[in-house]
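Final report, Chapter 2: Outcomes

The project's central promise was a pipeline that accepts a single protein chain and returns its three-dimensional structure in a standardized token representation, suitable for archiving and comparison. That pipeline is now operational. To close this chapter, we reproduce one record exactly as it appears in the project archive, with the input sequence first and the structure output second.
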Amino acid sequence: MPASTEPHVSVTLAEIARIAGVGRAAVSNWRRRHDSFPQPVGGTDTSPQFALSQVEEWLRAQGKLKEDAGGRERLWPQFEAFGDRDMMGRAIAAVGARVPAPGGAPGPVPPPVDGGLTEAQENAVEQAVRAAGEDGGAETFDFLLNRWLGTHVRQIATTPEPLAALMAELAELAGGPDAPASPGTERDPAEPWTVLDPACGVGGLLLAAARHRQARAADGTPAPSAGLRLRGRDSDPVLVCLAAARLALAAGATAVPDAARGRDGSAGDRKDRSAGPHRAAGPGDSPISASISRADSLREGAPAGTGADVVLCNPPFNERDWGHAELATDPRWVYGHPPRTEPELAWVQHALSCLRPGGTAVLLLPPAVASRRAGRRIRAALLRAGALHAVIALPPGAAPPHGVALHLWVLRAPVEGGAAGTELLFVDAAQHRTEQAGGTGGAGKAALDWPAVSETVLSAVRSRSSQRRPGTRGAAPATGAGERPPGTRTVPVIDLLDEQVDLTPARHVPVSAAVAGAGLGRRWSRMTALLDELRAAAGDLARLDFADGAPGGQGSTTVGELARAGALTLHPGQAPPDGTVREGGPDAPKGSAPYLTVQDLLLGGAPLGRVAAGDVAAGGGDGTLTVTETTDVVVVGSSRAFDAWVDADGPTVLGPQFHALRPDPALLDRWFLAGCLRAPANARQAGSHASTASRVDVRRLQIPRLPLDEQRRYGEVFRRLADFERLLGESRGLGTELVRGLSDCLSAGGLATRP
């Protein structure tokens, strides 16, 4: 056995609370009341860390550790202590290989780990396997995998579940088992339906394909083939092992990882290998089978004997070292040698090379692939051959990077002797966003309406299939025969073969009156209500009378003096720990809190980052995050974006250059405090003018000295003024939307003729 490399496993107060199944306030109380509570072994005074073994021993001795409480939370620190991404991932993959599959079936072949597991990794894995006996194998593995992915979210790209499900259904609808076979594409129904992902990562797209098949079976839909064969490849050995275990546990597939297979991805000679309760499983053992192999797909080419029915892929974007020079004469480049700056077009041609004749591929690509000048010849060749069938524009936020409106390309491998397609389907689903409540300082941000996105995309494909190939089996088109769904258009290929060959949907899909006018009625109703509210608020404020001189003659005080007197506490914002903040969007954790930065205010929008509810609770408890309460006053310490407001919509996680002021309600009125602090003259007096990016010394900001009753009187007016400002901001944004919507409707010819 290797020498012990047991890491020092430490936990924070918030993690202790999750382990014990109590609130963090209870843990702080234990620490104050019990001298026997373990002493910190690291961290800081505001964020102490404790040895996990000592904590568990103390909790057991005190009778505070319930065996069914915090079981999974007690596991994670063991894995997190390895520090290294790959060490953590290998150990989690081993857990997935050793826990029982759903229904008590044996697990898949244990994934190989280069160099084996260390003693510390083995101990952590064994603890997880024991815990899985109570919590379930798939549940335990999913918990560890999701925590690992969340920790390394910037290093590992994943496809959000709604998008993965859409891609799987789209592939089936566009050319899958429900689509009528073209001449030369007939297949033996006794053969399993093969789905390949040549850049599978942790297997999200393959898992979506398996779940789609399972949903069909649950609905009683007859299976179009004898089974489903999932094949994945990735260059990262850790991701390969994780994907194999994930598919085996979540999809009920028999999974054979790379070490049990040949280098070409075909089954090797190790079918009889077993290790204790584990077994190697071949494709015949289950209606769903999976084979995951380690390979650099672009450099090594298509796996031997692929002939996949479907390829689903979210390839890496903007790679430069993808093998451009060494693959110059590769036979896959049927449509042209991809330029060095066009790796995505290399993935497109690789996907086509992996398909059987008539097979379908759906790839998620950045929008620039549709228009970059360097790729125009390959795009033209794809169109002439009839290999590209649809380009679909998704709304921003569909997948990382969330600020970009990504595209889906739907391709079909040409059939020898078959007629090439003469039209290309464009779908612009970018308008399907709904407003959700935003965080501090914003009126809201756009969120994806996934049901509407899916319906638009699938309806367009169904409609085109019904027009081109009458008799299509499967779901009926959402629109009438020959009717083009809003936001879609089919364009003759000959019209696209110009100097640019620009395949961006927005350039070819005209704005229809139906799409442009969607929501206009709702917006007009809201605008009418806003105008009524503005009129009432303006009337109240217009009736105010002001006497000469300053309010009262009692002088003023500063935030610093109030803090020293105990009238308020000051909590400066801070940079969050690595991995805590995630991009907002449809895959933001439920119940998450916004993370506010000065840049968000300067851009004039809602916070772009989100912090999961668990991290908010943990960070607020151990002091690593500055989390506001709904009675706090937030002050911006930058003169470029100076402001102050009551964070009534909290909690909000504050970044650097923010301050949360928590007033004592018996001494200070929060609305009065916020209203006085935000006065422009206050910022000028308290600001440092050493540079153009000066900061405001919050402690020097001044507030008039007034009795509490008088503060409340002023505070009520400040609150009404804040409401008036909010109404003005909302009406301004809504007015802009109305002008744009009306302009689109008019330009689309949607003006009805009055009798």
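Archive annotation: The first strand starts at residue 10 and ends at 11.
This record, like all others produced under the grant, will remain available to the consortium after the project formally closes.
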